[in-house]
Amino acid sequence: MTFADWISEPVNWFFLAFGLVVLFCGFRVVTAKNVVHAALYLVGALAGTAALFLLLSAEFVAWVLVLVYIGAVIVLFLFGIMITRAPTGLDEGLDSEQKALPALLSAAVFVMMAWASIDAFGTELITSTGSPTATELLGQSLLGRFVIPFEIVGFILLAALVGGITVARRDLTPAEEEERSAV
Questions:
Q1: How many other CB atoms are found less than 10 A from the CB of residue 91?
Q2: What is the DSSP letter of 127?
Q3: Beta-carbon count within 10 A of 52 CB
Q4: Which CATH class for the 1-92 domain?
Q5: For residue 6, what are the CA distances in angstroms to 2, 10, 48?
Q6: Are 98 and 83 spatial neighbours (Cβ–Cβ below 8 Å)?
Q7: Dihedral sign, CA of 74, 92, 90, 31?
Q8: Each residue's pLDDT tens digit, 145-172
Q9: Which of 18, 98, 111, 181 could form a disulfide with 51 if both were Cys (CB 3.0 to 4.6 A apart)?
């Protein structure tokens, strides 16, 4: 397939647009000096990834990504920042001079994964062998046979959330309260 053939298909335009959004947001996640901004860029990267899954007709994976990662994990991350009273301003410790080694390692991992993908598939055109799995079928499978493990995992996650809040949230001494109100 030539570049002219690839660019002539409208779905590839959407893929390119969403891919660029994911790349930009992913880059900003690791370069943002404000932890809240990094979390919001992570939301953008995950939303772009969900859009890419929708383009691949993997609607269940896309909506699980939206519900679980964007709807739960990012909210939990932001609540964790707020509950622990972590500093949300600029962190000068994040502006390190040692950027060459992480950039080199990232490039090496990318080259290795690209080489492995090309070695495994080559120029073979991957075609769809049928219709995608219906979300209804996946839902019946998860909430039919696996409903008890599903509920147990939900209960364990709730207990972990309550425990995390209890550990992170400690009562301030009167001196700490006075110092905090003076600021």
A1: 13
A2: -
A3: 19
A4: mainly alpha
A5: 6, 9, 20
A6: no
A7: negative
A8: 778 887 898 888 888 878 877 776 666 6
A9: 18
Residue 77: alpha-carbon gap to chain centroid: 12
Identify residue 45 by its one-letter amino acid code.
A
CA angle 142, 147, 152 (to 5 degrees): 120
Tokens of 175: 């001196």
Q: What is the pTM of this model?
A: 0.62
- Rounded to the nearest angstrom, the gap between the alpha carbon of residue 62 and the centroid of all alpha carbons in its chain is 12
> Nearest Cα to 157, choosing from 47, 82, 66, 75?
75
Q: CA-to-CA distance for 79 and 85, rounded, in angstroms? A: 10
Which residue type, as a one-letter code, is found at position 63?
Answer: W
Neighbours of 79 (CB within 10 A): 14
Can you read off the two tokens belonging to residue 108? 């090496």
For residue 105, what are its two tokens? 């390692």
Give me the helices (H) in the chain, please.
3-7, 10-31, 35-55, 59-64, 75-83, 100-121, 135-144, 147-168, 174-182
Sequence letter at residue 95: D
| pLDDT 10s digits, 38-92 | 888 999 999 999 999 998 888 888 988 888 888 888 877 777 777 776 665 655 6
